[in-house]
């Protein structure tokens, strides 16, 4: 009874929110248009490079493989540390060999998935955090000017989080015996991709 | 308790020092001034994210903290909006303060550092007063009717009630992970926005 009442209230809440959003559709003032543009621009930025996508999905894959609490700690830490890297890039603090660092992230994370590595939690957080700084810095220096900073940032962080979620969802195949092999194969693909990106970075 | 206060307040005070000008336009829904105002907080990410960040903190304090936040935030927003609408044209935004505030709220929520209920109520009051004053001031500056301010305040109350209710329920059902992820994303957005604004300042100077 309690559950159904709560669900009923929850449904009503979402319905009200949906109605409110629908009401806002006639609002075609240019400010809203610019905000929407900034949001989608931010949303598309993290998926614009295959090296970023591979590494971020690999974080989710590895998190799923490690299970609790790494499953949620890694994706929670990654956007925040990546934003720190982005902050450094935005305020003009240089970071050496960013592209090499990004390629190395795909190599190391792919390798972790292939080997089903289970280092201590602190070590896995440290590995993910170090590489997140490189990814964030690269994005920070590339962010376009002239858009709403917060709207762009929300889109950007949302896309990063969703990529992790994709990785985690794919990583759930780990619970099946054949899935474990498939997951390690995916890790191998990320590793190979990382080697290619590394070769391109030092070329 | 003391260290939390000592960490939080200097951050807020420093953020208050940076107040560059920008414009916050009300959108036209063509449904009348009340709806123009009601839509404003829904399409203003600064307002939405602030309310969400406070709601996440309230969730860690339980239903009582949620009710306190709802009351203090909505009342203060109402007082700030109508006071500013009555006395001054304040057509400005405070992006650095907003960014620092989001970062602070996000990091606090990420580490599940639940502030005491009275502190949350006070923070909701101060934040509501400031954001309400900005909303009311910009409504006046753009020749908005008083119904527009009523719309803003009503919308803020509904938003705060929905978000605080949702987050408190999530925490009670032990879905803390969702709240911490939300806090992490709020903090990351705030940090990026802070860098963005600082870059803008550096470019301008």
Ordered list of secondary-structure elements with their pairings:
The complex is a heterodimer of chains A (203) and B (205).
Chain A lengths: L1 H22 L6 H15 L5 H17 L3 H21 L7 H18 L5 H22 L6 H23 L5 H26 L1
Helix pairs in contact in A: 2-7, 3-4, 3-5, 3-7, 3-8, 4-6, 4-7, 5-6, 5-8
Chain B lengths: L1 H15 L16 H10 L2 H17 L1 H25 L7 H16 L6 H25 L4 H27 L3 H29 L1
Helix pairs in contact in B: 1-5, 2-7, 3-4, 3-5, 3-6, 3-7, 3-8, 4-6, 4-7, 5-8, 6-7
Describe the structure.
The complex is a heterodimer of chains A (203) and B (205). Chain A is mainly α. In chain A, 81% of the residues lie in helices and 0% in strands. About 7% of the residues of chain A have low confidence. At the A-B interface, α1, α2, α4 and α7 of A face α2, α3, α5, α7 and α8 of B.
Q: How many strand elements of chain B?
A: 0
Largest interface: A-B, 46 and 47 residues
Task: Report the order of strands and helices of chain A.
Answer: HHHHHHHH
Tell me the distance between the termini of chain A. 65 Å
Query: With helices defined by DSSP (H or I, 4 residues minimum), what is the helix count of chain B?
Result: 8
**General form of chain B:** globular
- Beta fraction of chain B: under 5%
Radius of gyration of chain B: 16 Å
Number of strands of chain A: 0
Question: Main β-sheet of chain B: number of strands, strand sense, barrel status?
Answer: none
| Uncertain regions spanning at least 5 consecutive residues of chain B | 1-23
Order of helices and strands of chain B: HHHHHHHH
Mean pLDDT of chain A: 79
Sheet with most strands of chain A: none
Keywords, separated by commas or semicolons:
A: mainly alpha, 0% strand, B: 205 residues, mainly alpha, 8 helices, 80% helix, globular, disordered N terminus
Question: What's the quick description here?
Answer:
The complex is a heterodimer of chains A (203) and B (205). With 203 residues, chain A is mainly α.
